Amino acid sequence: MPTLRALLASLVFLLVGGAVFSAATDGFQSFTTEAARRLAVQRHPARIPAAALQTQSGAHIQLSDFRGKWLVIDFIYTRCPSYCIALGGEFAQLQDRLAGPIAQGKVQLLSISFDPDHDTPSQLAAYLAHSRDRGHGWLAARPIDPDGLAQIKRVFGVTVIADGQGGYTHNAAVHLVDPRGRLVGIFDLGDPGSVERAVLQRLGQ
Questions:
Q1: Residue 181 included in any domain
Q2: What pairing do the DSSP bridges indicate for beta strands 60-62 and 182-188?
Q3: pLDDT above 70 coverage of the chain, percent
Q4: Model confidence over 123-136: pLDDT tens digits?
Q5: I need a labelling partner for 69 at 20 to 30 A (CA). Which of 1, 7, 13, 145 fits?
Q6: What is the spatial distance between Cα 101 and Cα 203, in angstroms, rounded to a whole number?
Q7: How far apart are CA 48 and CA 77, in angstroms?
Q8: 78 with 149, same domain?
Q9: Residues 6 and 49 in one domain
Q10: Which helix (H) or strand (E) is 176 found in, with range?
Q11: Which residues of the chain carry a pLDDT beneath 50?
C-alpha cells in the first residue's frame, strides 16, 4: 500500500499547505506586501504618529495638528525624476478636485519628504512651485528628527532603498487619514478620481 500512503500524505500536505497559504495571503485576497498593507489599513485603521515636521515656509508643525480634517498624504523626495513628479501633478489635480472642502477647512494635502537632509524648506517650496501648487491647501514638509521619520515610514508602510546613485527606489501611493488621525485608505498613483470620491463620500458630498 505504499502508493495509497503516498497519496494520503500528499493530500495532507496540500490541505495544510493551502491553509497556511490562505492565512499568509489573507484568505487568498492578497499576494503582495503592498496589497496586504492596503487590506490591513481598511480593516484596522492605524493611528499615525504625532511626528514633528518643518514645512516649505520653515514653520514647525506636527502631524497631530491636522486632527479634525481629512488629510491626504504622499511621500516624496525633491530630486526624484519619476514617481514624485507624477505625485506632484496628481496633488495639483486634487487641489482643483477638492477645492470646495479645502476652502472649508475640511481637507488638507500634505507631501512629506523622506530625504530631510537634502529637502530643505527652499527645496520643498521649489517642488511645490514646479508641481504648479495653487497656493492653498497643500503643504510640503520634512520630518525634523530621525525617530519621527522612522515612525512615519513604519506606520504608512513607506519603503525607501538607496539606488547607489544618490537617489532612492520607493513605493508610491496616496494615503488618506481621517479626522481622528487614523490611516484609513491607500490609493494607487495615477487615480486621483478614486481619492476624490473617497474623500467626498466620507464628507457626505
A1: yes
A2: unpaired
A3: 84
A4: 999 999 999 999 99
A5: 145
A6: 9
A7: 20
A8: yes
A9: no
A10: strand 173-177
A11: 1-2, 6-31
Give domain status of residue 36, yes or no. Answer: no
Q: Does 128 lie in the same domain as 96?
A: yes
Which pLDDT score is estimated for 34? Answer: 72
pTM beyond 0.85 = no
Domain that holds residue 73: 41-202
Provide the strand spans (E) within 94-148: 107-113, 138-143
Are 84 and 106 found together in one domain?
yes
Asked whether the beta carbons of 87 and 74 are under 8 A apart, the reply is: yes
pLDDT at 166: 86
Q: Which three cell numbers stand for residue 169?
A: 527606489
Q: Are residues 9 and 92 in the same domain?
A: no
pLDDT at 26: 41
Which amino acid appears at position 6 of this protein?
A
Query: For residue 44, what pLDDT is reported?
Result: 86
Neighbours of 193 (CB within 10 A): 12
Question: Are residue 107 and residue 19 in the same domain, yes or no?
Answer: no
Residue 110: beta bridge partners?
A: 73, 139
CB contact at 8 A, 181 and 67:
yes
Q: How far is CA 146 from the centre of its chain?
A: 18
Q: How far apart are CA 123 and CA 77, in angstroms?
A: 10
pLDDT at 4: 52
